[in-house]
Write a structure and sequence with these properties.
Oligomer: heterodimer
Distance between the termini of chain A: 14 Å
Order of helices and strands of chain B: HHEEEEEH
Largest sheet of chain B: 3 strands, antiparallel
Helix content of chain B: 40-55%
Shape of chain A: extended
Number of helices of chain A: 3
Structural class of chain B: alpha+beta
Strand content of chain A: 15-25%
Number of strands of chain A: 5
Distance between the termini of chain B: 21 Å
Shape of chain B: elongated
Strand content of chain B: 25-35%
Largest sheet of chain A: 3 strands, antiparallel
Helix content of chain A: 40-55%
Largest interface: A-B, 64 and 61 residues
């Protein structure tokens, strides 16, 4: 099951000993502050986890895949995430476990 | 914005919103949130933050790579890499800010 804000807050109560209300609030604040920085076109660097970068994309020709009609895609700004080294290594360890499980012939545990 | 600046801003915003949190508590909370997110991804699970976005793993197929120094071919196993998909609110707000 996916990790959500509610579960992060619960874990904070256990980990840090925050009361429920404060735990919930700090999770909201965490994502609000990151979002505010990105909206202000400010890069966010969380060492160990990764960087949120902003990229300005130019207008480009697009197409409605259903009708084939040409519709230009407007210039826009997008958020991209670049995982940090530590996170990449942790996730690769999962990849290795995953291969071992596949090699052992057990059913695929994930649906990526 | 770095992690320490994030901690400062969260502490300031908590004060503004009348939430009783010390900067020490915010520091521990921020570290725990990041650790929880890393751990969940490393177990192959997803993270879904409404309004912000979702994190999941994407599979990269096995391929033959090259040692950049020697030019020698190396077989690379398939692997998972973290991926972030911005949520609708974040996408729209970031894009609207560009037009300001």
């Amino acid at each position: 099951m996916a990790l959500t804000k509610a579960e992060i807050a619960e874990q904070l109560t256990d980990d840090v000993g925050l009361p429920k209300r404060e735990a919930k609030e700090v999770v909201e604040l965490f994502f609000d502050v990151i979002r505010d920085a990105l909206v202000e076109n400010e890069q966010v660097k969380l060492s160990g986890f990764g960087n949120f970068d902003l990229r300005d994309k130019r207008r480009r020709p697009g197409r409605n895949p259903k009708t084939g009609e040409e519709i230009p895609i407007a210039a826009r700004r997008v958020v991209t995430f670049r995982p940090g080294q530590k996170l990449k290594v942790q996730v690769e360890a999962y990849s290795d476990d995953h291969h071992k499980k596949l090699d052992a012939g057990s059913p695929d545990p994930s649906k990526h | 914005m770095t992690k320490s600046e994030l901690i400062e801003r969260v502490t300031a915003l908590a004060l503004e919103r009348d939430v009783s949190l010390t900067s020490r508590e915010v520091e521990l909370a921020v570290k725990s949130i990041i650790e929880q997110m890393s751990d969940v991804l490393s177990e192959g699970d997803r993270i879904e933050i409404r309004g912000f976005g979702s994190f999941s793993l994407h599979y990269r197929a096995p391929r033959v790579g090259r040692n950049p120094k020697t030019g020698e071919a190396v077989e690379l196993e398939g692997k998972f890499v973290p991926h972030f998909k911005p949520g609708k609110d974040l996408r729209e707000q970031v894009n609207a800010a560009k037009k300001r």
